[in-house]
Structures are given as structure tokens and as C-alpha cells.
Amino acid sequence: MQPIAQVEGRFTEIDGRYAIVVGRFNHHVVDSLVEGAVDALVRHGVSEENIDLIHVPGAWELPLAVKRALTFLEPDAVIALGAVIRGGTPHFEHIAGQCNSAMNTLQLEFDTPIANGVLTVNTIEQAIERSGTKAGNKGAEAAMAAMEMVSLLRQLGGMRIGGDA
């Protein structure tokens, strides 16, 4: 019996071009997410010269800028960062849902990982907790996911699973 094929991303073979696309709305929270993402990339050996930082007004505008980055910059991965905080209207659900859906569609269309670091929270306190305090830094976590996916996809690129190589 053959051993089970196991493939997982490693934090090696992660060097490449990364685009960080950032919604400025709620910048007091989002700025910390950006710092966490850049720090995680650089700590793992990604050169600052290979990081493109693109700012858009808010989460609604993220998918279009991500699409342009994928088309013209051809990054190995995109890290989308932003913060959508629930208010008193259904606006939150529309923005968060459409942003997430569009990001998923784009990563499948372009066959490029898009790490979702867009906070969708009920309160400003929850956003602050997730941007570098009690709940960690979701920007850094998104960068880690992006690097892991770059490594994984590179391994899968020439690999045949479930048959003769």
C-alpha cells in the first residue's frame, strides 16, 4: 500500500511579489493590520521591494483594485485588508458579503491566492482587539496565509496527486 500523499504549505519558497490592497475606511484599525502584514512578510524573508501597497477608499472598492493588481502586477498573492464594522442598518451585510464573494471569485478566476484580512465585526472594540491586541493581528495572519498558499501552490504546480507521476 502506498503512503497517503500529503502536501501542505511551508514558510519556505515564499519569496515573490505580494500586493497588499487596503481599504482606508476605519484607518485607525486598518493601519495596524497593514503594519502586521508587512512585518510578517518581511520577517519571513520577503523583500520590501516585492511588496506593493495599494490604498482604496473602503472595503467596497477592494475587489476592483485587487482585480487590477492581479491583472497588471501579477503578484504571487494578494492580501486584502480592511474593516467593516456593523452599524444600525443592513449596509454592513451588503458590503461584507459582496466584498467576500468578489474576492473568492477573483482568486479562482486568476488562480492566485487572495488572503482575506477584512475584519467584519460588530463593534469598534472587536476591531481593535483583532488589529493587534487581545485577538492578535489579523493582518499578520492574512500575510501568513498568503505565504503558506504561495508555497502550497508552488508544490502543487508540477505534482500529480492520485496516480503515477
TrEMBL record:
Keyword rRNA-binding: no
Cellular component aspect of the GO annotation: cytosol; riboflavin synthase complex
InterPro entries given in the database record: LS, LS/RS, LS/RS_sf
Pathway named in the protein's UniProt entry: Cofactor biosynthesis; riboflavin biosynthesis; riboflavin from 2-hydroxy-3-oxobutyl phosphate and 5-amino-6-(D-ribitylamino)uracil: step 1/2
Gene3D superfamilies registered for this protein in UniProt: Lumazine/riboflavin synthase
One example GO MF annotation: 6,7-dimethyl-8-ribityllumazine synthase activity
Pfam families: DMRL_synthase (PF00885)
Catalytic site: 91 (proton donor)
List of residues binding (2S)-2-hydroxy-3-oxobutyl phosphate: 88-89, 130
Entry EC number(s): 2.5.1.78
Binding positions for 5-amino-6-(D-ribitylamino)uracil per the UniProt entry: 25, 59-61, 83-85, 116
GO biological processes: riboflavin biosynthetic process
Catalysed transformations (reactions): (2S)-2-hydroxy-3-oxobutyl phosphate + 5-amino-6-(D-ribitylamino)uracil = 6,7-dimethyl-8-(1-D-ribityl)lumazine + phosphate + 2 H2O + H(+)
Function: Catalyzes the formation of 6,7-dimethyl-8-ribityllumazine by condensation of 5-amino-6-(D-ribitylamino)uracil with 3,4-dihydroxy-2-butanone 4-phosphate. This is the penultimate step in the biosynthesis of riboflavin.
Family: Belongs to the DMRL synthase family.
Subunit structure: Forms an icosahedral capsid composed of 60 subunits, arranged as a dodecamer of pentamers.
NCBIfam families to which the protein is assigned, alphabetical: lumazine-synth, PRK00061.1-4
Protein name: 6,7-dimethyl-8-ribityllumazine synthase
Natural source organism: Larsenimonas rhizosphaerae
